[in-house]
Amino acid sequence: MDLDKEVALVTGGGQGLGRAISLLYARHGAAVAIGDIDVDAAERVAREIRAGGGRALALDLDVSSLDSARRAAQEAIDAFGTVSVLVNSAIFARYGPIDDIQPDIVDRMLAVGLKGPLLMSRAVAPAMRSARHGLILNISSVVGLGGVAYSSGYAALKGGVDAITRSLAAELGPSGVRVNSIAPSAIPNEMSRRTLDSEGWEERRRRTPLGVLGEERDVANAALFLASPAARFLSGVILPVDGGFSSASMIADVDIASVQKSRAA
């Protein structure tokens, strides 16, 4: 899992999954450009990486702006020579019933979560094509893989992200560029804890075949593998990192906890 020849640009890298991926990439030798609309958060992560002896740069980045995307890509190239890994982790998410859908909220969700990966991919594609080497890694969700109530807007953008992944894998593959998605289940962190109460988290755990909730490190480890030479032949892949949740959730009203208990007995 040696990334010392890679330069990663991580959007939404100042917090949550983006932060976890940035830190792990740096620990494995990659230079990391941390892009975030909250540049102070990005700088905190960059300082943490540099304090550990790594190479890092904080970028003020609005992924919904092509000018901002291009500027961030160029700053990373100027600092480290190239961008060989792009992680599209920036997100703006809201949940609720269809009756509460607000056009301005949907517009912002799609601008960050769907247009953002397209614009960022456009910004880094020339450098990757020139080097005939690169990975674009989109952070998707199990919500894009199956029906989840009160998540129609979020499901729309994550389903779109998976479609982008497959299409860009076909388009950029001949230039040596791989494109993949990671589709996590709900991972307890600062953002997701605002959307589920303790009962909701217990229900998620109960319906996960492995019987535990995932952690940010689980997603980061998958991102590390996909950026490594070990994954050189993987492209167009939508990888669930969910303990089996997306498969089990297709079977209505299955009590996973009871199944596990009976199996153990």
Would you mind describing this structure in some detail?
45% of the residues are buried. The protein has 265 residues and is of the alpha/beta class. The chain starts with 6 loop residues before the first strand and ends with a helix. It contains nine helices and seven strands, in the order βαβαβαβαβαβααβαα. The chain has a single domain (7-199, 215-247), classed as Rossmann fold (3-Layer(aba) Sandwich), CATH 3.40.50. It has a seven-stranded parallel β-sheet with strand order 3-2-1-4-5-6-7, with helices on both faces. The protein is globular. It comes from Paracandidimonas soli. Keywords: Oxidoreductase. InterPro entries: NAD(P)-bd_dom_sf (IPR036291), SDR_fam (IPR002347).
- Uncertain residue segments: 251-265
Radius of gyration computed on alpha carbons: 18 Å
| SS field, number of helical segments | 9
Strand portion: 5-15%
Protein name: 3-oxoacyl-[acyl-carrier protein] reductase
InterPro entries: NAD(P)-bd_dom_sf, SDR_fam
Keywords: Oxidoreductase
GO molecular function, one term: oxidoreductase activity, acting on the CH-OH group of donors, NAD or NADP as acceptor
